[in-house]
Amino acid sequence: MAHQQHINPLADELNSVLAPCIAGRLLSDLGNRLYFPKGIIAQSGEAKQFGKTANATIGMAVKDGKPVMLSALKDQLPGLSPAEAVAYPPTAGNEDLRKLWLDAIKQKNPSLGNAKITLPVLVPGLTAGISYLSDLFLDDKSVLLTGDPAWDNYVLIVEARRNSKLVGFSLFNETGFNVESFRAAVQEQAKLGSVRMLLNFPQNPSGYTPTKEEARAIVQVITETAEKGTDVLVWCDDAYFGLDYEDSIEVESLFARLANAHERILAVKIDGPTKEDYVWGLRTGFLTFGSKGMTDAQYDALIKKLMGAIRSSVSCAAAPSQSLMLKVLADPRTEGEKLEFRKMLEERYAVVRAFIDSHKNHPVLSALPFNSGYFMSMKCSGVPAEELRLKLLHEHGIGTIAIDPTHLRVAFSSVDTGKLESVFQTIFDVAEKMLSK
Ligand SMILES: Cc1ncc(COP(=O)(O)O)c(C=O)c1O
């Protein structure tokens, strides 16, 4: 007998709040079932406010109003109080950090104007954010569009984990972003009733960000689709936000143009300090929603669904990371040091750019368009990317990534500037020799 799907009354309540809006229409089977329990976390939150005599709610060991903390840990984290270091943070993250991040998003994306967007929800890294969105909006009946080639984790999350389908549109034509291929893929999906897409700029693995004109065209394709009556869910993976090295690039997130564009567009910003603030292993990221006309109650219900996904998997993100990020963002040295790191990456980009521009018409390698981020990728003609990777690694000690059978990715972000030219020269020489054998 088929297993009867059980919907908790709290999930039912959230579903009926969301039903009249795009978020409700796009929920997956799991998204439908998720809810945030009125259990320990919610009751403990109330007790924090009103339990003045004794707070006997949360599973921590508390003495004189503070969580106890081992000396060894205090020695390692002298700048953090016990509460900052070891107490459980809220499910959706430290409220102060969420507010700071919202202010930063608005400041970095002036086109948002007065668009009503949610407070960012803190998740343990951008990957977790993408996985939670997949929980909420993808199941075995849905398709997620993304540029091809794409970061390899997308297919792992979307297909292996969620049993959904990742469909690629061809990211580039001869000049840059392939608007025609994007439009055709969107129109094809629209025939099935709704469109879900994941756009990542600066992109991994190509290192490309659309020009201002291309960004306008992308927004236009999405808006026109919505105007024709199709729901469009757009995830903007802004992992490498801000690392743009050419003047022609659109520096704001597509989220800024989509969050208040149309009732049939639900935009989600996936971002965080991972790469923006050079803290890869801290594991903090954010999800922020924006859709024209969604009410506060609907935004709240959607965030409760997301909190259900968080509570049922990791429960909450790590406390020290959140406390440290608050201090990092408030430190007056941070902005200046970030500019230095960015300058270093930009210099590396300039070295790679110059090498590629002066090595056109190579018989094997042709660079995909790149202008931003950490990476550049090359199409390999006549030599399998994996064979080239292995030869570079075992005979020349150079590590690269074979993205697929025909693309090699180089993370110029992680190679010292002085070494870059010789690394690229070796890659080009080895590839050419392999062809002539
Ligand atoms: C496009 C893209 N999104 C997300 C991530 C992951 O971010 P996080 O380390 O915060 O999970 C990466 C990291 O490589 C990435 O390239």
From TrEMBL:
Gene3D superfamilies xref list: Aspartate Aminotransferase, domain 1, Type I PLP-dependent aspartate aminotransferase-like (Major domain)
A GO molecular-function descriptor: transaminase activity
Keywords (A to Z) from UniProt: Aminotransferase, Pyridoxal phosphate, Transferase
Keyword Acetylation on entry: no
SUPFAM superfamilies: PLP-dependent transferases
Entry superkingdom: Bacteria
Cofactor names: pyridoxal 5'-phosphate
Domain Aminotransferase class I/classII large positions: 84-426
One example of a Gene Ontology biological process annotation: amino acid metabolic process
Family classification: Belongs to the class-I pyridoxal-phosphate-dependent aminotransferase family.
PANTHER family: ASPARTATE AMINOTRANSFERASE (PTHR46383)
UniProt-recorded name of the protein: Aminotransferase class I/II-fold pyridoxal phosphate-dependent enzyme
